[in-house]
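Field notebook, page 368. I keep forgetting to write these up properly, so this time I am using the form the group agreed on. The chain and the ligand, flavin-adenine dinucleotide, are recorded exactly as supplied. Prediction of the bound pose follows.
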Amino acid sequence: MSSRWEVIVIGGGPGGALAAKKCAEKGLSTLLLEKKKMPRDKCCSGMVMGTWIQDIIKKEFGEYPDDMKNDTENLNGYAVHVPGEPVQDLNIHTPAIWRKILDTWMCKKAEEQGAELRDSMRVTSVKEIDGKCIVIVKKDGEQIELESEFVIGTDGANSVVRRSLFPDFKPKRLIGYRECYETRINMPENRFNIISPLNRFPIFFIHYKKNYMLLEGMALEGMLNETIENARQYLIQNHEMKSDIKPLWRDGCATHVMYKELSTKVFRPAKGNILIGGDAAGMNIPVTGEGLGASIKNGYDAAIAVIESKKSGKPAEEIYLNAIDELLEKYHDIFTYGLRVGNALKKKDYKEYSKSLAESWEYALTIL
Ligand SMILES: Cc1cc2nc3c(=O)[nH]c(=O)nc-3n(C[C@H](O)[C@H](O)[C@H](O)COP(=O)(O)OP(=O)(O)OC[C@H]3O[C@@H](n4cnc5c(N)ncnc54)[C@H](O)[C@@H]3O)c2cc1C
């Protein structure tokens, strides 16, 4: 294997797959490194939210293949459930795809354009010295040193790229969880159900994929089991979930909250020729936590920055951070909704709370 590349993309999620695809199709020698053996799963509802992302997936990757078609058709909208208030419906069709299938398809498309995908390759550090990026990788216990002109770090929430570049930056960590049951409860089918049991514990989500019901949400560190148990008890008491039912499987992942540091520019997700995107840069959309669109947008912008930088000599960091700032600008208004939701909850105005929660989701779905 060559150890020198024009671009090394780290992380085979949607952000990395699109970045690698775009660089490779422009003729840049591109290596896509993935820590896990592919196909790999990701703790995620897999909802492709908003028209921008749906359109760019079609444009860049093509029509969904047959094994995804069913998942792209079933979810016809969202339902916000607040106790004592009418259910708020948002009729916005949204594909909900298993990430294992989606991400594998996207990586394959990057390979078809000439990117070299290497899985089971865990990056342990990244640095830039005299315009050269050095990427250290562990594979089967062996350490390998790779070199590139540019690095695009789309290596998820626990990003090694971010920690290598900004070792002192320690954003707030939350734990995402997902439990899969073979059951149905008294909750609308074909809806992504957003359930807020008011101030007792965090919002959580219920949706169905074929025979399966998925219970998903976020928990504070150290509160994972309690948070999931509270959600289960709420469903048992209010939505006819069987009390003795056990999940077929559960998984989870870390996620970080970085809006404040991003919007105040305390944290800038790029340095020289090393660009960071998606969950690695904390770019999830506030309120919904949607991150597929954000990672794809960042992956796209990072690739464009690399391509332009190679052409014009303009620093990749500068081009990329301009695109990041444009996106953050779009995030700004969502905070106004966030405040409205928070204030209504504080005042125990549950009618307004339910309405503003639904409206904040509706607005967030139009950001990308
Ligand atoms: C419970 C839950 C539900 C969610 N539901 C949705 C949803 O419905 N819709 C939505 O848009 N968003 C959702 N999100 C958010 C979404 O999952 C992420 O924002 C999205 O996956 C980010 O994509 P990414 O490409 O940045 O990173 P990831 O998808 O996390 O990909 C990062 C990749 O990098 C690899 N990697 C990590 N470290 C290394 C390393 N050191 N070396 C090499 N490779 C490495 C990982 O194995 C992974 O393959 C959800 C999140 C959670 C927790």
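OBSERVATIONS:
- The domain at 172-255 is CATH 3.30.70 (Alpha-Beta Plaits).
- DSSP finds ten helices and 15 strands in the chain.
FOLLOW-UP: compare against the apo run.
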